[in-house]
Amino acid sequence: MSAVAATATSSGEAVQFWILGTVAVIGALATILMKKAVHSALSLAGTMIILAVFYLANGAYFLGVVQVIVYTGAIMMLFLFVVMLVGVTAADSLKETIKGQRWLAVLCGLGFGILLFAGIGHAGLGQFNGLGRINSAGHVEGLAQLIFTKYVFAFEITGALLITAAVGAMVLTHRERTERAATQRELAERRVRAGVQLPPLPAPGVYARHNAVDVAGLLPDGTPSELTVSKTLRARGQIRDVSSEALDDLKALEQRSAERLGREEASQ
Amino acid sequence: MNPVNYLYLAALLFTIGATGVLIRKNAIVLFMCVELMLNACNLAFVAFSRMHGNLDGQIIAFFTMVVAAAEVVVGLAIIVSLFRTRHSASVDDASLMKL
Amino acid sequence: MENLIALLIAAPLLGAVVLLCGGRRLDKTGHWLGTLLAAVSFGIGVVLFADMLGRGADDRTLTQNLYTWIPVEGFQADMAFQLDQLSMTFVLLISGVGTLIHVYSIGYMEHDERRRRFFGYLNLFVAAMLLLVLADNYLLLYFGWEGVGLASYLLIGFWQHKPSAATAAKKAFLVNRVGDMGLSIAIMLMFTTFGTFAFGPVFGAVGEASEGKLTAIGLMLLLAACGKSAQVPLQSWLGDAMEGPTPVSALIHAATMVTAGVYLIVRSAAVFNGAPDAQLVVTVVGAVTLLFGAIVGCAKDDIKKALAGSTMSQIGYMILAAGLGPIGYVFAIMHLVTHGFFKAGLFLGAGSVMHGMNDEVDMRKYGGLRKYMPVTFVTFGLGYLAIIGFPGLSGFFSKDMIIEAAFAKGGTEGWILGGVTLLGAGITAFYMTRVMLLTFFGEKRWQPTASDSGSAAGSGHEPHPHESPKSMTVPMVILAFGSVFAGAFFEIGERFLKWLEPVTGYSHGNPPVSAMTVTAATMVMLLVGVGIAWAMYGKRPVPVVAPRGSFLTRAARRDLYQDDFNHVVLVRGGEHLTRSLVYVDHSLVDGVVNGTAASVGGLSGRLRKLQNGYARSYAVSMFGGTAILIAATLLMRAV
């Protein structure tokens, strides 16, 4: 990679650019077009990893590694974590609610992109000098020298920024408890007074065949009871209905047993 | 291949990210699009670093990452507290900025 | 000696402050304190007078500069006093008559529970009036001028529980305001013309100002005088001002405050001497008011209102005389002083009659009172003889001098003014004889239920006319002495003329007829007036209910329609003006304003559709804007 240089690049890098570049664009498009936030996050992670590769190809070895570790590793995981925390909401639908918003957005994007391309094409971009000479003295050492000399103040200030951000995040998400936590006894009394559901909620799962938490337990008449499923899954509409399946199974079982009994009767 | 192509790629990714900000309603996805835009910028910085033959561009990209990390931390905290009060992560639900 | 001048004012002012702030614990002694302080002021006045007499005629002016009141660069107003012969005359009149009326009020207001406050107001009035005549610049004079206006307002409305009194006070205040505006404009004009408003510098610089400026200042001063002295066209408040307690009518609305206008004109003699047109207007106003007041006085059945008409008329004489210039200044002041004596005496007599008649004011319900109130009868009678100009009494001299001076004006003007003053003398004789006959002669006409004027004490009972207490009769006697002898005292050896001449100047004029002829003509007019009055009210019984009367009588009873005139011209006119202004405001001004607002509102209503509250919509705008910026940048670089 030390041959990172000059105006033209090696054909290997060209191949890598065209393949990975295409993938990166597809990943970016998927990020904005995927219906579920989780999918968007994963697509974005893919794009970022490709970008890390491009950093490496451009001679920014340190940055490439940081990109993988910090961005893809930490930040994207944070995103996923929040997606899980917040859950799936109606906001995920891609249906546009603001009139004309999508058309305007696409129009603006197209215009912006074209102008940007025109700008880059128009710009008098000089020679690509390459980083060979600089990196020869040690890439990370070179970076360190810049950070701790020329950019030392910016570096210190970003430190302060990170601390502030951490404190800010804690302040924003911290909830002050305004009243004493209810004891077990009080909770029990409250439940009796409300008189809605005295005993513990029924457990999910059916007949030991479907004991997953997203499967509603069946009532005696075969209809599923939503009470058995956790509130979050209920809100997301992620209840798997296996009642017909179970009834079919039951029917098949009865039929088999009838056959068995019939055969036995016949054999007798 | 001319390394200028990296810049074109960065411009394309940036435009896609910006368009995504405009068409997505989910605040988290919106944030991802912002991250995409930042990354596109970083790519451009790195390419410029290569063009000028010094490391300053990479340093700027490095700082961008730090700032992005801080922004994500605070932004996501805001989304979480917003979700707690509104039970929704849609940016359209917080449409109080009108007469 | 000049340090005493401030004390003249300070004594009654102290009384006013103590009495008004002192609270109820002074209720028992307050009236004595007030009277004492007024007397102290009079005493200081006498001391200063004696001192002044001891000096030469050219060396009699005293000045005292207390401090600089308004120390602004180019706008210096001093709290400074000037005591010359003119001021001295007023000081003695104000504090002397004022003290007598304080004494009188002790008896008159005996049963009024707010007597302390009354004396406080009286002291305030005396202080303000003294300030007015002692000021050495117009701004300080204006201060005193407003002070007496305030005191007058407070005292007219003293019985504020009576709506008529409250209204009368308000009316007096508002009408006076018009005159005060004239005075303030005059002061401003003086300041722009001369750069100062102190008497000395202004009068010294009169020669440098153009006649037009002087005429403007003079007319504004005349407007001020009209307001304060109840001259046409600002005369309407004086009749209603009789709603106040009678001592107030005697002191403020007969003897002193209403003569402030005369003082102002005589004091500003230098200005008027330089503005013949303004002087002519002054004489016209005086002549018109003279007849106006006299005619109104003929028709009123209310004794105080008849006297108020008389006051108006007599001040008309003074204003007329003051308008004659150096010929008349001295006689204006002389008549002012004698009038102060006999008119105050007449009012006090009227108050004494009302005191004995359960506050009845209708003269048609009096009659034959001379048997019941001998002292009042004699003092009132002497005042009567003085005012009609009975030979030898004070009114005879002072009025005669004015009539002579009017003729001495010369030319057609002189004949007209002289004729008017002569006619006025005749009418004066008529209406005063009428008052006298209705009140003290003839059959008694009061009835058991005569009192309907609202006095709680005597309502429904037959009035028992009785002589008033000593505190009331003694001042009346003293004033009667003044009425009888003042004129002769002033006239013998032309004392008054010599006394005032250094201040006001004097010119003999060129009388077309001899003084004896004028006196004879006056006597004839007097006899004719008295004779007609005797024929109408003395020979035959007087009906208790007023007959309908001729058109002129009815008009005079309504004050010659002055209030109707004011209502039609000023009130209605103002209403019409306001209404049309409101219309213009609504249709034009509001139209433009509302139109602008509506168009902006309509435009905003459309613009606000853009403000849908969705962050993403705003983001589109930003993004579009960014694109446009890039386009612009590229375009500029391409160019």
Automatic annotation (TrEMBL), chain B:
InterPro entries referenced in this protein's UniProt entry, alphabetically: NADH_UbQ_OxRdtase_chain4L/K, NUOK/Mnh_C1-like
Source species, domain of life: Bacteria
UniProt keyword annotations, A-Z: Cell membrane, Membrane, NAD, Quinone, Translocase, Transmembrane, Transmembrane helix, Transport
Localisation per UniProt entry: Cell membrane; Membrane
Keyword Membrane attributed: yes
Record membrane topology: Multi-pass membrane protein
EC top class, as a word: translocase
EC numbers: 7.1.1.-
Transmembrane segments: 6-23, 28-48, 60-83
Gene Ontology CC: one annotated term: plasma membrane
Pfam families in alphabetical order: Oxidored_q2 (PF00420)
Molecular-function annotations in GO: NADH dehydrogenase (quinone) (non-electrogenic) activity; quinone binding
One GO-annotated biological process of the protein: ATP synthesis coupled electron transport
Keyword Plastid: no
Reaction equation(s) it catalyzes: a quinone + NADH + 5 H(+)(in) = a quinol + NAD(+) + 4 H(+)(out)
Subunit text: NDH-1 is composed of 14 different subunits. Subunits NuoA, H, J, K, L, M, N constitute the membrane sector of the complex.
Similarity-based family: Belongs to the complex I subunit 4L family.
General function of this protein: NDH-1 shuttles electrons from NADH, via FMN and iron-sulfur (Fe-S) centers, to quinones in the respiratory chain. The immediate electron acceptor for the enzyme in this species is believed to be a menaquinone. Couples the redox reaction to proton translocation (for every two electrons transferred, four hydrogen ions are translocated across the cytoplasmic membrane), and thus conserves the redox energy in a proton gradient.
Designated name of the protein: NADH-quinone oxidoreductase subunit K
